[in-house]
Design goal:
There is one protein chain. By secondary structure, the chain is α/β, with parallel strands linked by helices. It is 37% helix and 12% strand. The protein is built from five helices and five strands, in the order βαββαβαβαα. It has helices spanning 13-20, 57-66, 83-88, 107-126, 141-152; strands at residues 2-5, 25-28, 46-49, 70-73, 92-94. A five-stranded parallel β-sheet has the order 2-1-3-4-5. Strand 1 (2-5), helix 1 (13-20) and strand 2 (25-28) form a beta-alpha-beta unit. Helix 1 crosses helix 4. The protein is globular and about 35 Å long. It starts with a strand and ends with a helix. Residues 100-105 and 142-153 have low confidence and may be disordered.
C-alpha cells in the first residue's frame, strides 16, 4: 500500500521503518497536514497523521481527491478528525488504542508499539479487512462486526 505520513519527527522514522519491514511504500514528511500539504497525498491510498493534524472537511475533501481511502492517527484521540466528512468521502479511519502500561517498558517501547499498530492498520486495510478495535469510522464498521457476532451467538 502506498501511504504518506505527515508530521513525522526525525526520531520516529526508525520506529516506522522497523515496523514496516519494507511492506508498504511510505513517504515520510515533517509537515503538518493542512489544505496546502494535502496535495502530497496524490497517488497514495493511506495517510498517517498525528493529533497535531487538524483534518477538517476541507482537508478531508482534498485527501479524497488525492486518492486517500484510509487515515490512521498515531494517537488514541480522534477529536482532530472530521468523522462526518470522512464518511461522506468514504474514507475509513483508525486510531491507536491505548496500550496497557504493563507492555510498555520505556518511551522507545511506546513509540515502537505505536508504529507497530500503525502498520498493522495498513496491513489489514490492504487485505480489505476492518482494523477491529482501532476502527473509529463515523458509521462504525467495528459496530457492524460486533453486531454480526452477537447475531450469530
Amino acid at each position: 500500500m502506498k501511504a504518506i505520513a505527515y508530521n513525522i519527527k526525525p526520531f520516529e522514522k526508525e520506529f516506522l521503518a522497523i515496523a514496516n519491514h519494507k511492506k508498504h511504500e511510505i513517504t515520510l514528511i515533517s509537515n503538518n497536514l493542512t489544505t496546502d500539504t494535502a496535495i502530497f497525498a496524490e497517488g497514495k491510498t493511506a495517510a498517517i497523521i498525528t493529533v497535531d493534524d487538524e483534518v477538517s472537511a476541507d482537508v478531508m475533501e482534498k485527501l479524497a481527491t488525492a486518492g486517500i481511502k484510509y487515515i490512521v492517527t498515531r494517537s488514541s484521540e480522534t477529536n482532530h478528525i472530521n468523522k462526518a466528512a470522512a464518511a461522506q468521502f468514504g474514507i475509513k479511519l483508525a486510531n491507536i488504542p491505548l496500550t496497557s502500561p504493563q507492555h510498555i517498558q520505556s518511551g522507545d517501547d511506546e513509540l515502537q508499539e505505536i508504529s507497530n499498530q500503525t502498520i498493522r492498520c495498513l496491513d489489514l486495510w490492504q487485505l480489505n479487512k476492518c482494523v477491529g478495535k482501532a476502527c473509529v469510522c463515523a458509521k462504525g464498521c467495528r459496530a457492524v462486526i460486533e453486531d454480526e457476532v452477537k447475531e450469530t451467538v
